[in-house]
Amino acid sequence: MSGRPKLTVRGIVKSFENDDGVLRVLDGISFTVREGEFLSIVGPSGCGKTTLLKIVAGLLEPDEGEVMIDGEVVGIGHSRVGYIFQQESLFPWRTVRENIEFGLEIRGVPPEERRQLSDRMIDLIRMRGLENHLPHEISGGQARKTELARSLVTSPDILVADEGLSNLDAQTRNYLQEEFLRIWQETGSTVIFVTHNVDEAVFMSDRILLLSNVPARIIDEYVVKIPRPRKRASPQCLEYRARILDTLRVEQEKALARQGA
Amino acid sequence: MLDSQVESERRPQETSRALNRQIRRLVIRGLLPFLIVLGIWQLVAYLAQGIGLVDVATAFVRLVVQGDADGRTLGQHTAMSVYRVTLGFLAAIVTGVPLGIAVGRYKVVDAILGPVIDAMRPIPPIAWIPLSILMFRTNITGAQVFIIWIGAFFPILINTTAGVKRTDPVHLDVARTFGATERQILTKVVLPSAAPEIFAGFRIGFGIGWMCLVAAEMIGGGLGLGYLVIIAEQLGRTGETISAMLVIGVIGFIISYVFLQIERRLLRWRREVSI
């Protein structure tokens, strides 16, 4: 994993106005993701991870700072990032195949080519035979895989997943983690994976960034030097897990102390 | 041995029970409503002019075959009414859907037009009759179509607006991550997502437009079911009036049924989603 920088995020600051005044959510976030890297961002709930992803994907504008893809500054409305949203986001009126082809339709890809590409995706996510089902006819895990395929089919520069595998039962989650890794390896994508689940981050990532509570800053970075395929309960995984949880606990105590003062 | 005996005894019993259920269903959902409708009309006909359903049936057949006092058949009247309602309904779709999308999607439009719509909506379509005559002068068809349009327009507009406002924000975000233009967002996300509400608006709008028909055709025009209702009564032909009313009822029922069936088929995805 020593590819060239794919994504550079520099000095991102973002605040929102609410009833209590202005809330600073992101407080100077900077990091780089290399081509083909699997980067996880871990942080407490409500710490602005989704905001950060939306800025990276060009759905939100930062107050300060910039996002660069392949050394080029990108602004709002760029479409170089494939996004897997936190909540279910398949179009319920479209079949699995039509959902996968959505982005291709938007880009004006002709029908025959769309079909070829979606066929490849259906095989990649191993959902052959389900392509003509509507979203309500498939399981939650299959829906997530379809969303993954919909994001991948347009070959985005970067794939971001926002808590992509929460809200699933443990078994489905484990299965999808492995599927996600397999697909990542087969496609060679660059991935930013947001989660609040430390085990998941250790099992899947090349590198992990730890975010603090709001206003969020990067408080630590871990390069996960465990060879793949990994085993969830291996001593190495557990060791990383313990170190990360320690850091998070210290951060939590600091936050509580701040609130007390 | 015993089991198989029980089985073979149960089977004919079960089929006869199923048959009973079928007959019950038919009586409750088909025969009884039909008889009640006939009863109501018998009562109405008797109270109005001391005539019976047989007289109504005779008048009906005469209307179909020979026509009214001017020799215009029931078919001609019906065709004219359907023509007018279709024009008014299409005008309501063409105006109501785009406006509903604009109000539902763009906050500025909503802020400006929302109060206007709320102020116009409570005015009954019938109250527009005098003004429509003034506006369209000698163009009677225009005035009639206008009344029907008023009736159908608001349900279509309101439903479209509600449907568009219900668009899931995450679906809009998905479209944006692929770089969709506003036009693509409208045609590929907003419209299909709002389709159930829009279609319900069509059904309700058509129903109200059809109800406005009688009022609209009272203006004149020499043809149409509403016109027939009025003119036959003025000539003392109550049987013809009732016949025309029955046709209005039956056609309204059929069209509403057809809309509902199309709605169900088209929107298979929504039923499960809402659960």
Describe the protein's architecture and organization:
The complex is a heterodimer of chains A (261) and B (275). By secondary structure, chain A is an alpha/beta fold. Chain A has two domains: 137 residues, P-loop containing nucleotide triphosphate hydrolases (Rossmann fold); 66 residues, no CATH class. In chain A, 37% of the residues lie in helices and 26% in strands. Chain A contains eight helices and ten strands. In chain A, the strands form two sheets. In chain A, strands 6-7-8-3-9-10 form a six-stranded mixed beta sheet, with helices on both faces. In chain A, strands 2-1-4-5 form a four-stranded antiparallel beta sheet, covered by helices on one side. In chain A, helix 5 runs parallel beside helix 6. Chain A is globular. The mean pLDDT of chain A is 90. Chain B has 275 residues and is an all-alpha fold. Chain B folds into two domains: 50 residues; 197 residues, MetI-like fold (Orthogonal Bundle). Chain B contains eleven helices and no strands. The longest helix of chain B has 48 residues. Chain B is flat and about 70 Å long. The interface between A and B is medium-sized, with 29 and 23 residues.
Would you state the CATH class of the largest domain in chain A?
Alpha Beta
Q: Biggest sheet of chain B, in brief? A: none
Which fold name fills CATH's third level, the topology of the largest domain in chain A?
Answer: Rossmann fold
CATH architecture field of the largest domain in chain A: 3-Layer(aba) Sandwich
| Percentage of residues in DSSP E strands of chain A | 25-35%
Rg of chain A, Cα atoms, Å = 19 Å
Query: Order of strands across the widest beta sheet of chain A?
Result: 6-7-8-3-9-10
The assigned structural class of chain A equals alpha/beta
Q: Based on Cα principal axes, name the global outline of chain A.
A: globular
Count of distinct strands of chain A: 10
Order of helices and strands of chain B: HHHHHHHHHHH
The number of distinct helices of chain A, counting runs of at least 4 residues, comes to 8
CATH fold-level label of the largest domain in chain B: MetI-like fold
Sketch the major β-sheet of chain A. 6 strands, mixed
Q: Note poorly predicted spans of chain A.
A: none
How far is it from the N-terminal to the C-terminal residue of chain B, by CA? 47 Å
Shape of chain B: flat
Which range best describes the helical content of chain B: under 10%, 10-25%, 25-40%, 40-55%, 55-70% or over 70%? over 70%
